[in-house]
Amino acid sequence: MGMKNRLKKKHINNIAVIGGGRWARVIVDSLVSLVGTDIKLSVHTPSNKLGMSKWLTESGLISQVKVCSSLPKFNKNELSLVIIVNAAHKHEGTIRWALANNYHVLIEKPFCTELEGAEDVIQLASSKNLFLATAHVFLFANYIQTFSNLVNLMGEIQQVDISWTDPASEKRYGDAKSYDASLPIYLDWLPHINSILNTFLDNNSKVNKNFSLSNGGSKIKLNSTYGTVKCKIHLQRNHDIRQRIFEVRSANNKIKLDFSEEPGSIYFNGKIIRDLDWENRPKPVELMLKAFIQSILTDEFDLRLNNSIGLSAIKLTEDVKFLYEKSLENWLNEEKKLFGHTMNNHLRYAITELIGVENRKAFISIEQQVDYVFQNVSDHILNKSVQNKEDDVKDIVFKFINQSKKLKNSN
Fold first, then answer.
1. Both 110 and 157 in a single domain?
2. Which CATH number fits the domain that encloses residue 88?
3. Which of 125, 143, 146, 349 could staple 216 via S-S, CB 3.0–4.6 A?
4. CATH number, domain at 244?
5. What is the pLDDT of residue 202?
């Protein structure tokens, strides 16, 4: 029986996508191809309604998808699903809203930004008998499954080396890709990496103190262990190239997966293994959405959507958080000399992230905030009459972030 027939028979009424960015468009495009016309599709974005409407019109989908700037209010007697792909700092609040309205939820990574909040919403979903699924799209990629199966044949694993980098600008799925400036690199990418590692390693991870940060936080290197296996992880934004490389070593063998460009290649025992049928297969995002819908309709939940996967990622990122924040503080103090000169890209990255992490709503643009903070921190550091010259630069930056949110444009 086809997917559309199944959905019609089971009477799903509404599927809402919460978010207005690139990934929301990918999700909407896949849903339109996946479900029947008897299911109402909608996308909800308070900040990009016009942009989303324009994209739907240009894509020929405007008649099939409703666009709103407010959150949906579905009939309580209808079966409604919500897919959350908005900014990471809004995830927990949006999950709580969806569960309060008795909607089943698929939440994009990172699941939540805090462990306590994640555990709380999992308990809330369970108490209301609602499905709270975490979206780890790579678990639905055939090349990941093939790689994991081969790794599991290697015997005892000794080490895994991972390189995950993005260039300053690129196109993905036909759209320009950019990162959320409020989302530190470890919080953005470790959930993906953790979900892949968990396909062939013990999910009990531990981060070592051997941690390095450079380039204002856009480049980090960390060591962790999964059970007894050592993992070396290199993450970098604004790199020269895009990299998605996993290299696994045992005592007598080595296997490498490079999916920098999907579906990538697996190098093992002198052979190169590629998914030659990639173009003819349903893509991972479509398979993930189909699994989410089927799980709800059948009450047989796909284990790849289990929120325990998202929870293990949060535990990992919480371990990294302290090391990252302390290292960024040290980097700012070490690079104090950069203030008072032309702001370089690394310093701009650090200030932008700190403004975003604090989630400061200002009347002026983020670019204007960054320039204001940089200039005032520079003046503060260079002012010989200012006492407490040993103050942490991070504290001084936050002082002027707080001031910047009160500024208004003069025009």
1. no
2. 3.40.50.720
3. 349
4. 3.30.360.10
5. 86
Helices 307-334/185-197 angle, 10° precision: 140
* Distant-in-sequence, close-in-space partners of 46: CB < 8 Å, separation ≥ 6: 20, 69, 70
Asked if 239 and 297 sit in the same domain, the reply is: no
pLDDT digits (tens, 9 = 90+) for 36-59: 888 999 999 999 999 999 999 999
Question: Count of domains in the chain?
Answer: 3
Per residue in 310-330, pLDDT (tens digit) is 999 999 999 999 999 999 999
Contact 40, 72 (CB under 8 A): no
Q: What angle do CA 56, 60, 66 make, to 5 degrees?
A: 45
**322 lies in some domain:** no
pLDDT of residue 179: 79
Q: Following DSSP, what letter does each residue of 239-262 receive, concatenated?
A: ESS-EEEEEEEESS-EEEEE-SST
- Residue 290 near residue 135 (C-beta atoms within 8 A): no
Residue listed under structure tokens 């029947």 = 36
Structural domain that includes position 220? 139-280
Kindly state whether residues 206 and 164 are assigned to the same domain. Answer: yes
Low-confidence ranges of the chain (pLDDT < 70): 1-10, 170-178, 358-360, 384-390, 410-411
pLDDT at 10: 64
Angle at alpha carbon of residue 109, lines to 107 and 111, rounded to 5°: 65
Rounded Cα gap, residues 367 and 371, in angstroms:
6
131 and 149 share one domain: no
